[in-house]
Amino acid sequence: MTLAMVASVALAAPSRAEDDFELPPIRYSASTPDNRISRLQSRLDAGEATLAWDDSVGWLSGMLEALDVPVSSQTLVFSKTSLQQTRISPRNPRALYFNDDVYVGYVRSGEVVEVSVADPALGTVFYAMEQVPGERPRFVRRTEDCLLCHGGSQTRGVPGHIIRSVYPSPSGQPIFSAGSHRVDHTTPLADRWGGWYVTGRHGSQRHLGNLTYTARPPSAEEADPSGQNVTNLANRFGPSGYLTPHSDLVALSVLAHQVAAHNALTRASFDVRAALHREAALNRDFDQPADYRWPSTNTVLDAAATALVECFLFCNEAPLAGPIEGTSPFATDFATRGPADHLGRSLRQFDLECRLFRHPCSFLIYSASFDALPDELRARFWAGMDRVLTKADPGARFRHLSADDRKAIRTILADTKTGAPGHWQGDSPN
């Protein structure tokens, strides 16, 4: 067998992608996490940090404060599609809160607060904290029970997140025969938010939120209009026990992109690390120099970098047909987190008229997960970004970005992100 044939076989992904992350070099369940939650737990154990208990919401408020998760990020899902599904219903929705790397799930009268975090080495790591007062609250890592749903094809074969839009019955149980939609920034608004509460204004555009169903509507136009442009949820459930009365449309829209981008980061990282691990073994087995590069490794690197560039630059983003707005301070809270370039522009600034962001490049480019990507992958990512953002014609996949868009993104990244191509610093201000 030739070296090229050996490489083709040895560098191919194992046939059961859902098990890849339990093998070296990832060893997901056997590895010790190092992330925002594990570090907070270490401070709690050492007595260097505390969480405040609240008799109404338990550890929730203290946890959000300790993790710098804004209350305005609250979204509400009432379909029975999560760990505490027996407690969830349209009258008792599950609240989700998030920042750039932490997600917190709370169910009124629930036994635990669910937490997940973007771990730079392990992708998404899942925890739960019992809703029992005590001096030393503990985040307990969850693996098998969470990975049943959060480690398969719906999450691109890595430990990650799923946002699903379903057709819920009046009890909140999905009507499985009606189908469902996986939600990210490419999903049309008309297919989003079934089983979720949505507060905001969106004009004549429609979504699937705020309603229960007896069957899938034949068309969006025939759906009950009472779920559209809802700004007050008081007649749908009692607000007692929730931190805000909102399930903000803009927060939901950011969540859809962020979940997809976190999954893309994990998939790219795992693919490249596995390929480099297998390559190192091949080089030892065939007495090749340690830095010998197999063509199949280049293929994995190029594919991973391309996928990240396309995700981070919002390829195939579903366009908005008109303005949208939320009902909470989320849009302001999110935008002020920066960083900004010398003209005051930021990747967190919203458009909300024809697309989500004014400058369509993912804010997760500033995340620890991005910075922890293998060096060769980040180098190829930046090379791909340079091709898209500097060419006169970036290709059909990127036609949604105007010349002004691409110039603005270059300047923002040159001013705010270590690792961006140095020659972008020479761009004249827009």
In brief:
The chain has 430 residues and is an alpha+beta fold.
Textual characterization of the structure:
The chain has 430 residues and is α+β, with helices and mostly antiparallel strands. It folds into 2 domains: 27-250, no CATH class; 260-426, no CATH class. Helices cover 30% and strands 10% of the residues. The protein is built from 10 helices and 9 strands. The strands form 2 sheets. Strands 6-5-4-3-2-1-9 form a 7-stranded antiparallel sheet, with helices on both faces. A two-stranded antiparallel sheet has the order 7-8. Strand 2 (94-98) and strand 3 (102-107) form a beta hairpin. Helix 5 runs antiparallel to helix 6 and helix 9 (375-390) packs antiparallel against helix 10 (403-416). The longest helix is centred in the middle third of the chain and has 37 residues, at 249-285. It is globular and about 65 Å long. It starts with a helix and ends in a 14-residue tail after the last helix.
Layout of SSEs?
Elements: H1 3-10, H2 36-45, H3 60-67, E1 75-77, E2 94-98, E3 102-107, E4 112-119, E5 123-130, E6 140-142, H4 144-150, E7 164-166, E8 180-182, E9 196-197, H5 249-285, H6 295-312, H7 330-335, H8 368-371, H9 375-390, H10 403-416
Antiparallel strand pairs: 1-2, 1-9, 2-3, 3-4, 4-5, 5-6, 7-8
Helix pairs in contact: 5-6, 6-9, 9-10
Shape: globular
Sketch the topology as an H/E string, one letter per element.
HHHEEEEEEHEEEHHHHHH
Whole-angstrom Rg = 22 Å
| Uncertain runs | 1-18
Average pLDDT value? 92
> How many β-strand runs?
9
Profile the largest sheet.
7 strands, antiparallel
Overall number of domains = 2
Number of helices: 10
Estimated structural class? alpha+beta
Strand order of the largest sheet: 6-5-4-3-2-1-9
Q: Percent range for helical residues?
A: 25-40%
What is the distance, rounded to the nearest whole angstrom, between the alpha carbons of the first and last residues?
Answer: 56 Å
The proportion of residues in beta strands is 5-15%
